[in-house]
Amino acid sequence: MTRTEEFEELRPLLFAIAYRILGSVSEAEDAVQETWLRWAGTSTRPTSTRAYLSAVVTRLSVDVLRSARVRREEYVGPWFPEPLLTDPYEDPERAAELSDSLSMAALLLLERLSPLERAVFVLREVFGFGFTEIASAVGRSESACRQLAVRARRHMDAGRPRFETDRKERDELAERFFDAFREGDVEGLRELLAADVQMVGDGGGKAPQLANAVIGPRNVARVLAEFAPLLGKVGIVVELQQLNGQPGGIFRDRDGKVVSTMVLDILGGRIQTIRSVINPDKLGHMGPVADAWALKREANEARRPTTGHKG
User: Fold this and answer.
1) Which part of the chain is the RNA polymerase sigma factor 70 region 4 type domain (predicted)?
2) Looking at the whole model, is its pTM more than 0.90?
3) Which among 160, 147, 92, 97 has a CA at the least distance from the CA of 127?
4) Which residues contact 80 (CB under 8 A, 6 or more apart)?
5) CA spacing 20 to 30 A to 163: which of 43, 171, 226, 301?
């Protein structure tokens, strides 16, 4: 197998590691590309190419995360990870860990960890790397990595999100939700929402959004029902999709451009959290992005009552 073939075989794994450390599709792709450049530029023939390349992409991702955390502290409004349509890496033996670590809620929980804790947790708990490999990847001793793993696991277990395990039930509930949303059915929406449901959007100050989180089934259902008719007036449609392993949808304008995404956290047959990503900088990997401000202006014009001319 050539070096290029070795790398391409491992590319899905490298992206999966980088995305979980960074929470960003674009930054993960950049880290994988830089890993390739370093691999192509070295004559090193490691004992394990998988361990070597995983270590390189992990170090690069940790460096990027350290600088990204400063930017995220200055971020306007709530910060969410970039939505991911499909995880390119598959491992039947670790399917549960891979799936659990991909959700928006889990990635937001990972944000509470230090960069090193996050890297160690991802390599150990998600991908099952041994501590010898992890120590090499993060530049710490095995004992230090074990301590980092214990701390990270404690933080994650304390806030670990729980979701509906039956995917069919989850998807059916999501379908009912989006049907009620399209119809502006307040009562239909309310009966699907948990008592402590909250709806939050990430616009990063670069797209129109709700000023604050909307909390409670009555408020969330009312806001959604008022919002739905405006979408139809400007030609926006919602396309049901799995995003970050959770049921959700992609909102597109009349030209098929991406306006936003919405992901649903579901537990106990009710929707617990509705998260929308509206920031155009986080949507470009999903296709051409719509001008949300122009759509808002069009919607505002459409909702104004028409008046006749006086004779």
Assistant:
1) 105-156
2) yes
3) 97
4) 104, 108, 202, 275, 277, 282
5) 226
pLDDT at residue 232, as a whole number? 87
Q: Report H helices in 160-271.
A: 167-183, 186-190, 217-233
- Evaluate whether 202 touches 282 at the Cβ level (below 8 Å): yes
- Structure confidence by residue, pLDDT tens digits, 113-143: 999 999 999 999 999 999 999 999 999 999 9
Amino acid identity at 291? D
- At the second CATH level, the architecture of 3-159 is Up-down Bundle (1.20)
Radius of gyration of the chain (CA): 22
Pairwise CA distance, residues 93 & 128, whole Å: 10
> Are the C-beta atoms of residues 251 and 260 closer than 8 Å to each other?
yes
Band of the pLDDT at 163, cuts 50, 70, 90?
low
Which residues are paired to 193 by β-bridges? Answer: 271
Residues 139 and 108 sit within 8 Å (Cβ to Cβ): no
Give the tens place of pLDDT for each residue, 246-303: 999 999 999 999 999 999 999 889 999 999 999 999 999 999 999 999 998 998 887 7
- What are the residues whose beta carbons fall under 8 Å from the beta carbon of 204, sequence distance 6 or more? 75, 76, 77, 79, 279, 281, 282
Domain ranges of the chain: 3-159, 167-303
